[in-house]
Amino acid sequence: MAQYKILVINPGSTTTKLAIFSEEGLVVGESLDHTGEEWATRFKTVDQLPFRVAAVEEFLKRNSVEPRNLSCVVARGGLLRPVKSGTYIVNEEMVKDLRQEVGGSHASNLGGLLASHVASLGGIPAYVVDPVSVDEYSAVARLSGIPDLPRKSLLHALNMKASARKAAVELGKPLGELFLVIAHLGSGFSVSPCYKGRLTDANNSNEEGPFTVERAGTLPSLYLKELYDNIQDPKKLKTILVSESGMYGYLGTKDARAVEMAARTERKADLVYRAMAYQVAKEICAMAATYPESPDAVVITGGLARSSVFTGLIRERTGFLGPHLVYPGEDEMGALAEGALRVLKKEEAARVYPEKEVFEV
C-alpha cells in the first residue's frame, strides 16, 4: 500500500498554518505567527506571496521534507469563481484568478498560489478543497425578490462539508441519502440545508442571516439606505456591517466566552447572547423548511459549538426538528488533508477549475 505524505497549507490574515499528514493523520504541524512582521500589515494580500513562500520553504527544511517526496500539496481555497463542492486541481486559470483577486482580497487567496509554488518545486499535484465560493444553490434559492440582485453563495463550505461527512458516519447512512441542516458558528455564521450531499441554500455569512459576534446579518432594507446616506463611504459601511456589528456592536467585545459569563449577572449581555442564539435557531428552522420532509439531523459546528450554553439555547427552539449532532471547533487542516486523500485514493475524481453547475430543487 502506498504511504501518502501530504503538505497542507492554510494561510490566515496574520498566520500561516502548515502541516504534514499521512494516511494515519497529522505527522507534524506548525502555526507561524506573522503579527510582528512588517510585510504582514504593509503589503496587500497578493504582494505577501514571496514572504509566505519563504515561510513554507523554511518549514519544509526544518522538517527535512523534500517537495519531490510529497504525494501532493493541498491548500485552503480562496475567493474563486462559483464552483461545485470538491477537490480542485490548482491550474493556470485558478492561479490567474487568485492573483487578480476576482472574488475579492482575502488571505485564503494565497493558499492556491503557495500550493502551486511547492508543486512546481517537486513536480507534484496541487489541490484546493471546498473553497468558500462553493455554489450548489437550487434555482429557487437564487431569487432575492429584486431581479437584478440574485442571491450569491458564500459559506464556510470546507468545515460544513467535513461535518456533513462526520454526521453521515454517525447516522450510519450515505451522505447522498441524508437531509441535514448544518450551522457553522464562528466569527461568521453559515446555516445551510445539506440535501443529498449538496449545500442548496445558505445565508451569505457577510450579508444575511443571524447577527454574529461581529457581523450584522439581515437588516431592514430601508434602514440600510439611511445608514449609507449618513456614512457616504462604501468601505466604512462594509467594515461596520462585517466586523463592527452584531455582539460587538451591542457590547464592545468579540469574546463570546466573556459575554456568556457576563450574561449570568448582566441583563444586557444576557439579552444579546440569547438574541444571537434566537436568530441562529430561526435560521435553522428556515433552512429546515426548504424541503418537504423532516431533516435527519441538525448539525452544529464551529467555535461557538464548544459552548454547551449557546448550543443549549439553540436546541430549546430547534429540538423538535430531530437529532442534534454537535462537532465543536473546525479542523480545517484535517479536512484539507482528507479532501486530498480522497483523490489520491481514487475515491473521488479531482475537479478542473472553473466548474459550475446549478441544481434544481
From TrEMBL:
Keywords of the record: ATP-binding, Cytoplasm, Kinase, Nucleotide-binding, Transferase
Keyword hit for Transmembrane helix: no
GO MF assignments: acetate kinase activity; ATP binding; butyrate kinase activity
Enzyme class: transferase
Chemical reaction(s) catalysed: butanoate + ATP = butanoyl phosphate + ADP
InterPro entries, per the entry: Aliphatic_acid_kin_short-chain, Aliphatic_acid_kinase_CS, ATPase_NBD, Butyrate_kin
Pfam families in alphabetical order: Acetate_kinase
Keyword Transferase carried by entry: yes
Transmembrane segments: none
Gene Ontology cellular component list: cytoplasm
Domain of life: Bacteria
GO biological process annotation, one example: acetate metabolic process
HAMAP family according to UniProt: Butyrate_kinase
Record family assignment: Belongs to the acetokinase family.
Name of protein: Probable butyrate kinase
Organism whose genome encodes this protein: Candidatus Fermentithermobacillus carboniphilus
Top-level taxonomy: Bacteria, Bacillati, Bacillota, Candidatus Fermentithermobacillia, Candidatus Fermentithermobacillales
